[in-house]
Amino acid sequence: MAAPVHRTIFVVDVEGFGAADRTTPDRVAMRRGLLHAVKTAFREAGVRWRGLHVEDGGDELLVLVPAKVAKAVFVERVPQVLADRLRAYNARHRRQARMRLRAAVHAGEVLFHDGKATAPAIIKARRLLDAAELKSALAESDRMLALVSSEWIYDEVVRHGDHADDYRPIQVEVKETSERAWITLPVPAAPAKRSWVVRRRTPLLCAVAVMVVLAAAVPVVLKLVSAPGAAPAQSLLGDPRTADPCALTYADALSAYGLVETSDHYGNFDRCDAMVYLTKDREQFVDVRVDFAQGEEDSSVPVHREGAIGIQRPPAGPDSCTRLLVLPDDEQVVVQADEQGDEKVDLCGMAEAVTSSALVTLRKGQVDRRTLDAGSLASEDACALLDSAAVTAAVGPGPIELNPSFAHWGCAWEYTDRPGVAKVIFDRTAADQVDGAAVPLPGFAARVQAAQRSDTSCTVSIIYRTYVDKKHEQTDELVLVDVEKRDEPPDRLCEPARRLAATVAQRLSR
Length: 510
Hints:
The protein is α+β, with helices and mostly antiparallel strands. It is 20% helix and 32% strand. The strands form four sheets. Strands 1, 2, 3, 4, 5, 6, 7 and 8 form an eight-stranded mixed sheet that branches.
């Protein structure tokens, strides 16, 4: 018989997997989503999935990691990324197929026999996972994940790291196990941003976002920027509010890579996504998205000219590749390919394919038009939902520069003398995805949650309307008011977030 070997033990379990309102297709989606979320979290934390021992129990996943992999990543990085991946999964699925997880991390000597693993340490990890206090902590919260660490992992790893204060002790009494453990509710990792952008629009959020960094008192100076109106002369996009981003998302250009499905009901109204599924089970895919933008040209990246249109090719990341079409009227088309999975794929080849087809379309003249619903949030002007007086009353006075984004579906009030910005962004997501405690606002349902977008902010989400999209799925248009300060606990930022949300709600029309 082979000798036992030391392994880090990471085990996760789906909350309420057997709930009566879930169907068999719901549970199939959850099983696939669980495996994909865990694999992605490991990969983004720098842990190669190949070479790990994995046992799939349906609503449970056991992962055994060789001792050479630092244990710190399983308490300081994997949980945060996993929580973010769960949030992304839930945004794409109906309520009954959404999930939250309990996770346990432990370590010990493991014996492998006939392709299976057995060890007292594995039994203990599963007992920790069944702890009543862990279950109740998740049930009573609005987080995606509840993590329990064994006493040994806490003593040897957690308490020496940056997140020790986030843990609290519990007493575990499950069958033969009676001992102390430590639990935490991880904050989702902040969404990755394009590091090459000079002035970045807010990334995918299910909302209209107002981000604020609190600042010291100085006089207000407001720089005016032109209000929305007719598109500039010679604009290849034409009227920004009717330009169709899916007209530049040519699915056939990606068909050689896998099955392609397009969607124009996720994210802001300036966006279209082409989901390229690389495997039959759809666990491995690439999201190739086209965004309309303004003010995102990066002076540090060379521009290759194709007539009046420029192309920028920023350096690719490990899981992402971006191309930027620079139009002659200070508008841009951003093409970005993001990988979700372990399949090796030419991300820049995919981005180039869409860029080339978009270039062909743009050379023909203005892009095709589309019609948005009359009652849509797209008819609103984000810059009219706040003003300098509202921002400075909630945040503090200071010199402010007003910067609208494409079609005024986003607007930023930026402090010019220090870091600080208030933003309003429009966005869309699957219905029933708003987390947090209820907030009374005039005419709208809303919820507030600290550390929703990042661990330095508090967010109020306002539901503008719910509608049925082209795929017959319910979709929410939201207003998200996010107050952020790097050196302030997020709970203290909820009051200014509520104040700004009240102003936004009063100015929204129906």
